[in-house]
Specification:
alpha+beta; eight-stranded mixed β-sheet; 5 helices
């Protein structure tokens, strides 16, 4: 299936193979405007290894640079080629070819691959991509960051019960530009996202604890935790965009450390902290 989408001001055509994660999700971003970027996946029966000189490799991947752009060959544990990613030189087109038999769950794997490469395009369109759950309260956004399985989704959902009209703007990849966060159809394992935007009021870095405590992070100490939760671009030239946008966040937005329990009292504690 192909969806011409507008995500923030990013015009992108996304193709997937009837993926369950996108059903009743991606349609809200569809547009009639012409696409500038393309991100798509395709299932194939076989793949041939690239014959160019290997630029870099690790246990399961080989990277190549060609006149047309970049190629990544991905290998199964058996040694067989299971996926190939084709990236044009300007990163305006990324195509992912996959052999289904080499993936235990091809639907989840397809979504993960698309989610991995969507930020590469978004960054080149001027966005920072922060790994966060985004809660929208009274027209402003609070971003909750935590490591995988760190409780950010659980914590974010508490606000839906506590604050009338609160919504989840995105539950995984927060697109940020000029101090504003945008929803996108890439929202982790959930479909909690909205095609909306909101100015960022705060960023909270969560860690699990037995009591709830929040502390303001001084400006000079904010950059490191922000970088730790930022999806990093694959090329050095894109770091200029990332650091510029992070610099704006440092100047505009308060950041906090939050030591939280998993129950609703954690959200009540933060709201009290924020309002006092």
């Amino acid at each position: 299936m192909t969806h011409p989408c507008k995500i923030g001001d990013l015009l992108i055509r996304i193709t997937h193979q009837n993926n369950d994660h996108f059903i009743d999700n991606i349609e809200k971003y569809e547009t009639q405007e012409p696409s500038e970027y393309f991100l798509g996946s395709r299932f194939v029966k076989s793949l041939e290894e690239c014959q160019e000189v290997v630029v870099k490799q690790d246990s399961f991947r080989k990277f190549y640079q060609t006149n047309q752009g970049e190629i990544m060959d991905v290998y199964h544990s058996s040694g067989e080629l299971k996926a190939k990613i084709l990236i044009t030189e300007d990163y305006h087109k990324i195509e992912i070819l996959m052999i289904p038999k080499y993936f235990p769950n091809i639907i989840d794997s397809e979504y993960i691959y698309l989610s991995m490469f969507f930020p590469e395009i978004a960054i080149r369109a001027g966005y920072v991509v922060l790994h966060a759950s985004v809660v929208q309260i009274n027209g402003k956004a609070i971003l909750f960051c935590a490591p995988s399985m760190g409780g950010k989704t659980t914590h974010a959902n508490h606000y839906l019960q506590l604050v009338e009209g609160a919504t989840i703007l995105n539950d995984d990849k927060a697109l940020i530009k000029d101090g504003v966060v945008y929803g996108s159809p890439f929202s982790g394992q959930t479909k909690s996202n909205l095609n909306q935007s909101a100015p960022i009021e705060a960023v909270v870095f969560l860690s699990k604890a037995t009591t709830n405590q929040f502390t303001l992070i001084e400006r000079q100490a904010r950059l490191l935790p922000l970088i730790q939760h930022t999806l990093r671009p694959s090329s050095e030239d894109s770091w200029d965009v990332v650091l510029s946008q992070l610099g704006q966040l440092l100047n505009r937005v308060h950041c906090y450390f939050g030591h939280v329990t998993k129950d609703q009292a954690s959200a009540e504690s933060f709201l009290h902290f924020l309002n006092n």
